[in-house]
Amino acid sequence: MRIALLKLLVPILLIPSLAYNQSADPNPSIEKSIDSILGKMSLTEKIGQASQRGTSSRVKILPEELKQAVREGRVGSVLNVLDRNNVDELQRIAIKESPHGIPILFGRDVIHGYKTIFPIPLGQAATWNPGIVERGAAIAAEEASTNGIRWTFAPMLDISRDPRWGRIAESAGEDPYLASVLGRAYVKGFQGDDMSAPNKIAACAKHFVGYGAAEGGRDYNSVMLSENTLRDTYLKPFKAAIDAGIATVMTSFNDINGVPASGNKFILKTILRGEWNFKGFVVSDWNSITEMIAHGYCADAKEAAFRAANAGLDMEMTSTSYENNLRELIKEGRFTEAQLNDMVRNILRIKFKLGLFKSPYVDRSRDEKLLSKQHLADAKEAAVESMVLLKNKNDILPLSKNNKIDLIGPLANAPHEQMGTWIFDGKDADAITPLTSLQAALGKKLVFTPGLANSRDRRDTGFKEAIAAAMKADVILFFGGEESILSGEAHSRADISLPGAQEQLIKALKKTGRPIVLIILAGRPITLGNILDDVDAIVMGWHPGTMAGPAITDLLLGNASPSGRLPVTWPKAVGQIPIYYNHFNTGRPATAKTFVQLDSIPVGAWQSSLGNASHYLDLGFEPQYPFGYGLQYTSFDYSNIMVSNAVVSMNGSVEVSATISNSGKRAGTEIVQFYVQDLVGDVVRPVRELKGFKRITLEPGQKQEVKFSLTAADLSFHNQAMKEVTEPGKFKVWIGKNASEGLEAAFELK
Ligand code: NOJ
Questions:
Q1: Of 66, 391, 546, 667, which shows the fewest CB atoms inside 10 Å?
Q2: Do the domains 33-353 and 636-749 sit in the same CATH topology, yes or no?
């Protein structure tokens, strides 16, 4: 009540929209050059610049029709040209034979590496380390550009609260703050400070927007989002990427509250161009303009072209509605040449920034960089840091080197599968598997009996051999999870437990009495309810990439310590989804006290809800593992939380600190997390929001004070009037190990 009164008396802080966008920012000399080219271009060429042709990721020969289209200036960009001789051949045609010699922009999905494959983006998010993410993107750019690729369709910045959705693998997880920090790191890594450097490529923030909120986790599905949630959660990482200077944005396949993203003026014009002042260009997703016909938003391709172009979508990927209809739309006066000029201007601006007019051809001088020693070392470091230790009963990990090991499971020696989704250019032959590395480290002490041929294998024919070998071993290492094709685009799953007969094999192995270490390689959290108690340790390895083997070997044998933390809440069962840490409180928040367990209800009980809260009778209200969770081989204690000032003014700032000490016997890395709760708002606020984190490495017995600071702008949100505001009132803060624990303190903003 008092707080509400205070709010009436004290003016709230309105947050101005700050937009600065270096990489895509207009530069007078570039704008002049664009003007001069635009003045000469025919309508056909202008429409051509807005058209991206796509070939399948496997086509190796250039179609004659494509060459002719380039010659006539009807193509602005091509996606998936595999061979650099083909890249140069098309570029030569564009430069030498097309009417005004405008270079082609070659794009490809270089998502988590080109030849050197890093962990899937969800795994990279588990590192909570923007430094290694930036290095990974820089390596991807360095390698991809040796093949003439100057544009990648990454990073994917879709907030993902649903592990059924296959594309969660490609995301930075569920949190807008973490996704924003990592989004900026990707942009910096791909683009550098100057995109025209030959080893840099343009990045693309995708999918704009809300794609991760697909209903039921079914890919491409409808998205219903309140404007508050859209702005305070889903748009945040995109804004961060745009402020970091990202060159391009891709629209998503979904509709948002009934309006498909590719024809959505509100997101493209009002927000992206209007509020954020974005100066790069917007590309559609694959056929997403003409898919507006299937959505039931446009009657035909001409209408789809009109809706998309009018909404501010600059380049059409693969479908040809612009090529076939923009001219007529202009003739009819429904669309203007001036509007088309704006689209082309946005595209040419990025081509200039990439230096394509000066150096259009493939830079062939850097081949030795592909899979270089340094790239592999960085990929290994990323893989080590991505792995999350979820369980470690009796400190069974790290393993003693004297143990006899039975290596089991469909993913212990599956080079292709360990690389994960989107690895068009990563080669199985370059991927080092856990079997290879563990064998090198343990020699004869290791026996390999896979038990199952692949992750979906339902046959028990291999069980006998695996069990017999397990009987002779001290420890069982079980590499389970999902093959790479089970996550990623269009690969949603309704049941996200271990597929095939993996659970049965684990149950059979449990009977040997040998301790089981389960290493999960998967593109998403896996529900573990059926086997959680059968295994002694669990390591979530995601799909770790080329260097999975060396990374996991170092971790299991204690040459490295686990430091990964979950970037998503891990559910107990699919029925709990969506489950994420930064939810609202509800009027009846669930607590341990109010939780009513199914079996505790008397048979024939009288209908009553009194005392009950927002929970499931069978599974409660807590996840299996909270956001931010991860164990290590040592222990860290938190003490002495301090708030610099209990009362903070709107133009002031507050510092919150705590002391972290390594109370265990080994050195270790802790990811210290900082959360805030705004207790009362004009619209209800999340129970916690991540506002900062720090990676610290401490020797045994060492301690460190960790500080976080906040200003009013860090506490802003959109109110009922859709204004971005920070309201005065009381706030709670936590410094802790994950979203479910931590030392608590408070302050008041006045
Ligand atoms: C469809 C995917 O949704 C998108 O992420 C990707 O970049 C394009 N295809 C191009 O391959």
A1: 667
A2: no
The CB of 153 under 6 Å from ligand 1? The reply is yes
Please, how many CA atoms are within 13 Å of residue 229, restricted to the half-sphere of its CB?
16
Note the CATH number of domain 33-353: 3.20.20.300
Active site includes 285? yes
Helices (H), 332-456: 337-353, 373-386, 434-442
Phi/psi for 480 (5° steps) reads -115, -175
Q: Which fold has domain 387-556?
A: Rossmann fold (3.40.50)
Instruction: Summarize pLDDT for 486-534 with one digit per residue, the tens.
Output: 999 999 999 999 999 999 999 999 999 999 999 999 999 999 999 999 9
pTM, two decimals, is 0.97
Compute the mean pLDDT over every residue in the chain, rounded to the nearest whole number.
96
Q: How many CB atoms neighbour CB 643 within 10 A?
A: 17
- Domain edges within the chain: 33-353, 387-556, 588-622, 636-749
| Weakest-pLDDT range from 158-162, 399-403, 490-494, 638-642 | 399-403
Identify the sign of the CA torsion 289, 294, 295, 296: positive
CATH fold of 636-749, please? Immunoglobulin-like (2.60.40)
Partner residues linked to 405 by β-bridges: 446, 475
- Please tell me the distance between residue 716's alpha carbon and the centre of ligand 1 in angstroms: 33
Q: Where on the phi/psi map is residue 742: left (φ > 0), alpha (ψ -120 to 50), or beta? A: left
Distance CA 679, CA 686 (A): 9
**636 CA from centroid of ligand 1 (Å):** 42
Mutate to test the pocket of ligand 1, among 165, 285, 287, 492 (most ligand atoms within 8 A of CB): 285
What is the number of the ligand 1 atom nearest to the C-alpha of 252?
3
